[in-house]
Design goal:
Elements: H1 4-22, H2 29-43, H3 46-54, H4 57-71, H5 79-88, H6 91-98, H7 106-138, H8 145-148, H9 154-171, H10 181-198, H11 201-221, H12 225-245, H13 247-261, H14 272-289, H15 300-311, H16 314-319, H17 326-355, H18 359-372, H19 381-399, H20 403-406
Length: 408
C-alpha cells in the first residue's frame, strides 16, 4: 500500500502535468491550480517546505511582489479593478509555495515538460486544422496573427511555443521520449510553422535566438557536427525566406523598421509598433509623477486613459490599451520598489542558472525578460500563470539541491 507521502507526491505530479497541458488553452488551468494548492495544504510537511522557502531568495521576491500589489489597494480609487488585478496575479503568490518549495528531479520534470509540449502541439494542430477548414469551406484566410490564434494573443502563444522548444532541447538525450532527433524534428517543424503563422515579431526574434542556441548545443555539447551545420544553414535560410517572402510577416517587419527610423511619430498613428512607442512616452510621464508608490493597484488603466486623452492618442484611449511593457505597467501601478522586486525575481534565477550553467532556465528568463519589453505580460492570466508556473518549476528543478535533482 502506498504511503500517504507518495500519494500526495503523485497527485502533485499529475496535477502539475495537467496544468502544463491545459495552459495553452487558457481556460481550465485555474481549476487545477486550486486543486494543486489544496493537495499542498493537505499534504502538510510545512517545516520542510518552510526551510526550502526560507533559503530561496527568488521565491521571496515573487511573494513580496504580490504583497506589494495587495498594499497598493490602500491608495487605489478603483477597488473593483484592484481586486480583479489581485485575482489575475494570484498565481505569483501560490506557485512559489506549491511548486518552488518542492524539489523536482529530472524524471518528474520531464513528464511535466512533455505535458506542456503536448499541449502546445495539440493546440498548434487544432489551429492549423481550423484555419484549413475555413480556407477550404469559406475561402477566407485565417492563417495569420490574431485570426489564427483564437485562444490567446499571438504574442503569448508565441512565448509558449518558444518555451516548448527550449524544453525539447533540454530533454533531448535526457528523456526516454527524446532519445532520438528523429522524434525531435517533427515537433520542431510543427511548432516552428505555428510560430511563423502567429506573425509575432518578438516571437520570431526569440525563435531565431533559440535556433542559434540549439545549433551551438548540437555542435559543442552533443558533437553532432553535420546535423548542427544543416540546422544552421537551414535555419538561416528559413528565417530569411520568412522575413522577406511571407507577406504578413514581411509587412510587419517592414513597418517596424519604418517606425524605428522615424524621428517623430504622430499621436494618431495606429500601427502597433508606433502605438507602443507613444504609450511608453505617456507611461514615462505618469511614472515621473508617481515614482515611489505608483497610482495604486486598480488605477493604472484609468491613469493611462487620462494621459492618452491629454496627449490626443485617440486609438489608444478608445481601446483602453495597457502600457505594453511589464516594467512600465508595474511601476505605474505600485512604484519603483515593485519594479526592483520584479527585476530581482528575474535576475536572481538568471544569475543562479548562469553560474550553474543551466542554460534552459537562463534562456527562459531571457525570453520572458525580452517579451516583457513589448507586452504587459503580468496583466493577463495567460502571462501570469506561465511566468509563475515555469519560474517556480525551473527553480525547484535547478535551484533546490537534492539527490534526485542531480540525476541525469
Amino acid at each position: 500500500m502506498k504511503s500517504r507521502k507518495k500519494i500526495h507526491e503523485n497527485i502533485h505530479l499529475y496535477l502539475a502535468c495537467t496544468i502544463a497541458f491545459t495552459m495553452p488553452f487558457a481556460r481550465l488551468t485555474p481549476v487545477f491550480i486550486a486543486l494543486l494548492f489544496l493537495n499542498w495544504l493537505i499534504e502538510g510537511r510545512f517545516s520542510e517546505k518552510w526551510e526550502n522557502l526560507r533559503k530561496s531568495k527568488f521565491l521571496w521576491f515573487m511573494l513580496l511582489f504580490y504583497l506589494l500589489h495587495v498594499i497598493g489597494l490602500i491608495h487605489t480609487e478603483d477597488m473593483k479593478a484592484g481586486a480583479f488585478d489581485l485575482q489575475v496575479k494570484l498565481s505569483l503568490f501560490l506557485f512559489p509555495l506549491i511548486l518552488g518549495t518542492v524539489p523536482l528531479g529530472l524524471r518528474k520534470f520531464a513528464f511535466i515538460g512533455l505535458s506542456f509540449i503536448g499541449g502546445c502541439v495539440f493546440v498548434s494542430l487544432l489551429l492549423i486544422f481550423r484555419s484549413s477548414y475555413i480556407w477550404f469551406t469559406l475561402g477566407e484566410n485565417h492563417f495569420f496573427y490574431q485570426a489564427f490564434s483564437i485562444l490567446m494573443h499571438p504574442s503569448y502563444f508565441a512565448m509558449y511555443l518558444t518555451t516548448a522548444l527550449l524544453i525539447c532541447l533540454y530533454l533531448y538525450g535526457r528523456s526516454f521520449f527524446f532519445r532520438s532527433w528523429i522524434v525531435l524534428v517533427p515537433v520542431f517543424i510543427l511548432i516552428g510553422i505555428t510560430e511563423v503563422l502567429l506573425s509575432s515579431k518578438m516571437g520570431l526574434f526569440v525563435l531565431a535566438f533559440i535556433g542559434v542556441y540549439g545549433v551551438i548545443r548540437l555542435i559543442l555539447i552533443r558533437k553532432k557536427y553535420l546535423l548542427g551545420l544543416i540546422g544552421l544553414l537551414g535555419g538561416t535560410l528559413a528565417f530569411i525566406l520568412i522575413v522577406t517572402q511571407m507577406p504578413t510577416v514581411s509587412a510587419r517587419m517592414e513597418q517596424l523598421f519604418k517606425t524605428l527610423n522615424k524621428k517623430e511619430i504622430s499621436y494618431d498613428n495606429n500601427e502597433s509598433s508606433a502605438v507602443r512607442i507613444l504609450i511608453w512616452k505617456a507611461s514615462n510621464q505618469i511614472v515621473a509623477n508617481n515614482l515611489l508608490i505608483g497610482v495604486g493597484t486598480g488605477d493604472v488603466k484609468e491613469s493611462l486613459k487620462e494621459k492618452y486623452q491629454e496627449l490626443g492618442m485617440r486609438g489608444a484611449y478608445l481601446k483602453g490599451l495597457n502600457a505594453h511593457n511589464a516594467y512600465y505597467q508595474t511601476t505605474i501601478a505600485i512604484g519603483v520598489p515593485a519594479l526592483i522586486l520584479f527585476i530581482l525575481s528575474l535576475f536572481t534565477p538568471l544569475w543562479m542558472s548562469w553560474r550553474k550553467k543551466q542554460w534552459l532556465y537562463a534562456l527562459f528568463i531571457l525570453s520572458f525578460f525580452i517579451n516583457c519589453l513589448v507586452e504587459s505580460m503580468l496583466e493577463t492570466q495567460a502571462g501570469v500563470i506561465y511566468f509563475g508556473f515555469f519560474s517556480c518549476l525551473f527553480w525547484s528543478h535547478f535551484g533546490l539541491s537534492s539527490e534526485e535533482t542531480e540525476k541525469a
